[in-house]
Amino acid sequence: MDATDSSGVAVLLTGVGKRYDIVSAFAQHATVVAADPNPLAPAQYAAHHRTAVPRIDDPEYVPALRALCDEFSALAVVPLTDLDLEVLGQARADGVLPAFVPDPQIARATFDKYEAHLLLERLGLPSPPTVLPGQRIDHFPVMVKPRWGSGARSIHRADDERAAEFFVDYIGEPAMVQWFMDGPEFSIDVLCDLGGRCLNAIPRTMIESRGGESIKGTVIADAELVDLGRRVAEALGVRGPCTIQAFRDRQIGLGITDVNTRFGGAFPAPMYAALPGRTYPELIVRMARGEEIEPHVGEFRAGVTFTRYYWQLELDDQMRPTGRDIIDPPGPPAPR
Q1: Cα–Cα distance for residue pair 169/217, rounded to 1 Å
Q2: Using CA atoms, how far apart are residues 13 and 74, in angstroms rounded to an integer?
Q3: SS3 category, 106
Q4: What is the H or E stretch that residue 171 is in?
Q5: CA-CA distances (angstroms) from residue 259 to 108, 195, 329?
Q6: Which of 29, 40, 226, 264 has its CA 20 to 30 A from that of 198?
Q7: Tens digits of per-residue pLDDT, 77-124?
Q8: Which of the four pLDDT bands, split at 50, 70 and 90, describes residue 153?
Q9: Class of domain 10-100
């Protein structure tokens, strides 16, 4: 994409990876600069400008982002991965980057699933009973999972103490043991302003997931989930997007199993459900311009279902999109 948008606002998206849906959505409302160290990250080709940056653990990472903000006059930095949330949170706290992320200690705690459990408990928010290996387990079955896992990696159900001990050893990294939530799973896609006010909370079902990412789901009007999303986001001081995963267990009711202070994998759901002018990328661009957005929690279109599929780009020998596709014209067949 070569042309720039007409809104006069630039947004820097980091760690874009394969999130073509998010990048292209922002590109409808702002000049988008995509930063990713991988030259084959497909989502960068939906941006107006793409650039390689140092790895997140490189001391030059934040200075490189600052230089891009200066070059393109970017007024917002939005991460599309978990990996740089704490780094960006510190940079925002230091006044270096206009990042839409929470404070660094919140980013750190929510990245560690056991610390997230303790934090939620301290805040009076529902989290399933969770212990560390070696601590007493009062209820089976349980789920054994890595503390710093992502993408549903290495999560195992254990029906007794012997199985729990086996999976803790099998995972081979710091783990935790959590109550097995026996009930339907939901996600709540939230957006907060830079003052930590929840602007909206849109819940959806989890019909099917792959690698921990929802690929089919339906937006639902569930007042209890909407309220839970608002309470969690405002208690944590979320700034920008956040996705909260929860189950409704038969015995203990709602329990939060994950908090990701970034856009969720099922980004299309809140896009389709938002009322006109209120998609999350639009609201972030408006906030970057300095506009104050009034909360509209619970105002969305319920009943919208999404089903996701995979696509690809052809690049030439200079790593530029050719514009060709496998079918012509690309996209779904016209309705009949």
Answers
A1: 34
A2: 10
A3: helix
A4: helix 161-171
A5: 11, 19, 39
A6: 29
A7: 999 999 999 999 999 999 999 999 999 999 999 999 999 999 999 999
A8: confident
A9: alpha beta
Q: How far is CA 264 from the centre of its chain?
A: 3
**What is the pLDDT, as a whole number, of residue 3?**
47
**CATH 3.30.1490.20 for the 129-179 domain, yes or no:** yes
Return the CATH fold of 102-127+181-336.
D-amino Acid Aminotransferase; Chain A, domain 1 (3.30.470)
Q: How far apart are CA 30 and CA 244, in angstroms?
A: 27
The two tokens of residue 303 are: 């009943």
Phi first, then psi, for residue 61 (nearest 5°) are -60, -55
d(CA 255, CA 127): 5
- Could you tell me whether strands 185-192 and 198-205 are parallel, antiparallel, or unpaired per DSSP bridges? antiparallel
Residue 227: both structure tokens together? 């309220």
Contacts of 186 (CB under 8 A, 6+ apart): 203, 204, 205, 206, 220, 222, 225, 245, 246, 247, 248
Q: How far apart are CA 79 and CA 200, in angstroms?
A: 19
Percent of the chain with pLDDT over 90: 85
C-alpha–C-alpha distance, residues 259 and 257, integer Å = 7
**Tokens 């917002």 belong to which residue?**
76
Residue at token pair 């009973």: 129
